Structures are given as C-alpha cells and as structure tokens.
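Homework help board

Subject: predicted structure for assignment chain

Our instructor gave us this sequence and asked us to write out the predicted structure in token form, then describe one feature. I got the tokens but I'm not sure how to describe them. Can anyone check?
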Amino acid sequence: MNTALSLRGIAKSFGGVKALSGVDLDVDGSEILGLIGPNGSGKTTLVNVISGFVRPDKGVVSLGDAHALTGLQPHRIVRSGVTRTFQNLRIFKRRTVLDNVLLGQTPKVSLGEILNPLLTAQVRARRRDAREWLQRFNLDERAEAIAGSLSFGEQKRLELARALANGPQVLLLDEPAGGMNPSEIEELKVRLREVRASGVAILLIEHNMKLVMELCDRIAVLAHGSMITTGTPDAVRRDERVIRSYLGEE
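My token output:
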C-alpha cells in the first residue's frame, strides 16, 4: 500500500516529562490504524504533533512520502489534507449545524461568503456538498438547528462530518465513540468503513477495545511515549507486552 502519513523519530518533552520518545509510525492509504495505550502514554500528544498543535522537539511528520508537515501551523496542515476531531468537542455551538460543516470547508468558503445573502455559485455548490455530508451522518433534518442544541452523540457526528467536509487524505480521530450509546457506535463503525472505502486513511485513538478490534486493519500500541508494537488486531491481542502494559490478562 502507499503510505498516507509517515512519522519518523518523533520526540516531545514537557519540562522534565518525556511524552514521546522517538516514535516511528506509518499510516497506509485506505486503512484504519488504531492507536491505543494507557492514559498518559502519549496518544493525544502524538495527534497534536501531527496536526500542528504541538511542535515536536525532534522528528519529521510527512504526508505521503515527501510532503513535510513538521512545523506547519494547524490551518496549513488542514489545507495539505490532514483533518482531525477532538477528544473534547470543538464545534461552533452558537452557529447552525449547516454552518459548522460549511466552515469545515474553509478556506474554500469564507465565513463572510456563508453569511452573505447573495450566494455565489461556488457557495451554493458548497452548501449542497455540506448537506450531503449531513445526510450521510443522519443530520440533514437538523441542518438549520443551532449546533449546541444537538444531543452529545449528534454533536460527535457533526464534528466528524465537518472534519470530512474538507476532503482530507488523512483523518485523525481522538476518541470518536466517547459518550456514544451502543447503537450510535454501530452506526459510527459503518460510517468509518465508508470513509476508508472512499480512500481516506484514518488514525483512530479509542479506548473502546471492542470497537478497535472490530474496526481497525492494524493497531499501534504506545506506552510511556514509546511504540511497543504494531500489528493486526489478533497479533496485538496476543502480544505479551501489550497484555502487561494495557489490555490485562482477562
């Protein structure tokens, strides 16, 4: 497979605490790669490095085999083709559901264009695209609702729709199933498989091991800022180092 995202020698310390120590990782095109590990193992820090919210002390993040992302600001990384969701929701709660997805298309459509009553042909096309994303995530009937009025599960789906609206090559998901009920999680699995089938590579942080084992093509395991192993769900499930550091004997 082609490499969609490549990390080499990623290191990051906060004061005297080593959050990441020389992490190497590849995410292949059209795969879902799970990233698991104990709390404090460095998972969210790694995603923050990839998405430009944290600058690494050492190492290189590349999109594909050549396009270096290291040191770019988050909005530049989004334009390059990497989008993300957050463990703690970051939607525009006072704007409509549709506006949230339209803003996910930025820089293609500006906020001023969205609010302009004289819509250009480009903006009308973007609105159609945004509504299609809402339909995929069963939010089309809530398009004109204020985003903050949605249930927690709906807000999670909205954040995912917004992240995908920019047409990324790589999607970073930080605990997308957190707070979802079982039926919402099943729906999430279906949608993420559709995203993978469309050619988008997914890096998934998730504590729901049932979801991870059923959904991911491969799993990478972090502990104390270092990569323990990467392999298929079956291989990771049987790995003694993973059992000791994270999964437990049961």
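Reply (TA_rk): Your tokens look well-formed. For the description, you could write something like this. Residues 121-136 form the longest helix (16 residues). That's the kind of observation they're looking for.
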